[in-house]
Amino acid sequence: MKRVFLAALATETNTFAPIPTERRHFEEWFLYRAGEHPHDGPTLFTAPLWSARKHAAEFGWTLIEGLCTAAFPSGRTVRSVYEALRDELLDDLRAALPVDIVLLGLHGAMAADGYDDCEGDLLRRIRSLCGPSTIIAAELDPHCHLTEEMVEASDLLAAFQEYPHTDAMERADHLVRLARDASEKKITPVTAVADARMSAQVFTKQAPALNLVNAMKAAERSGEVLSASLGHSFAAGDVADMTVRAWVITDNAPEQAIRSACRFRDMAWAMKETCGARRMTGPEAIEFVSKVSDRVILAEGADNSGGGAPSDSMELIRTLMGAGVGPIAAGPIWDPLAVEIALARGVGARFELRIGGKACALSGRPLDLNVEVIKIRRGATQCFGGSIWPMGDMVGLKSGNVFLALSTVRNQAFTPEIFTGVGIDPEAQRVLVLKSNHHFRDAFTSLSNHILYMSTPGVAICDPRAAHYLSVRRPLWPLDSEASAQAAQTSWLKGSSQ
Ligand SMILES: [Zn+2]
User: Fold this and answer.
1) Are 330 and 232 in the same domain?
2) pLDDT tens, 409-423?
């Protein structure tokens, strides 16, 4: 029987965000101590654990489950919080030794005070505890900063290939099979990494990024590579390794690994101008709305809590109201104080309320409205990607023909439940303003043919040109004209026995 240790420690760190990530933020999403992960379904970052449970009997594995925890994207994790969680995970591992395989759910863009690369730090410590013969495998979010330390300390890294991240479970199954094969010495993993020296948004459900994902999948199916991943870059992380990187794993075929990694890197470079969305300003969106008769969705990527933003900017809503656009529904707007006041007043109450505009300068000005509480939902949730996402307490507010969904937990718009759950009918609106960048897309497509991606300012940097970087390694497209993938000398190889 192979002994397999499982754990997860994940958050996506926006180094520009005003709200530090504290322990309560891990507890807010999920924090399961060793052996406490429930049996009702995986989270985004515990898909490897879920897959291992599914395959344990077939593979002859004995599972030892350690700490599993994740926090929603926000500012750097407080140093003592990161160190305490890391050390608890390492203590769980130490108690489980010896193990044949370590399987982890990580993000890849976690930073704490004093640590720009938490995953590299964690993986290095895991390696030194386990020794060289244990297979260390981790599933990553493609919005990761893949670092040399992460690659050096592990044997198998595989990212979700899709954005929206709808394939966490599929990729976990993929990783778990590779970990079994490596542990049984049926394969000798060799990883090649190729750096595109660029940052872009990569929307994988549409061309041209769809073509790249299909090419990676085809390479896996044909046996050209064992595994292919693309790190999309996370522009709100000001760390040295913020860049697009392609990496592949082959079965002890280093030259093939380099060739394939460079091929996917070059495909990424070629689509850099077109793999995301064209973005619009508020006035451009208003003009668009005036020209169509049906419903329009405005996605506020820069105020997306899924990218670490507060989700409390009211500026776009103010602009729409000023232009007489309506009816409008917007959400989820994070404002615990406004929710507390609305909860105390109760359903049906009408009163003056100051909403949003609190967390930082980029939150803009608050909006003062005479509102009516239309519905309260305590312990609200959304279902996305097979997981349940907490929203805290929510209230639905009405002010004229403006409907607002407010929450106490910062979370992005995944599904229309954010409106319907608090008595707001999304189908009765002319415009829906969503605090989300892209994950909303599948669930909202049926509500509108017109989805506009906004360029409004905010903490969740969508365009690297809007950020002031101190640590990002340069040159990098689109910041520097001399950046070029073909000229990049930063590709590397790991695990070759040749
Ligand atoms: Zn992501």
Assistant:
1) no
2) 999 999 999 999 999
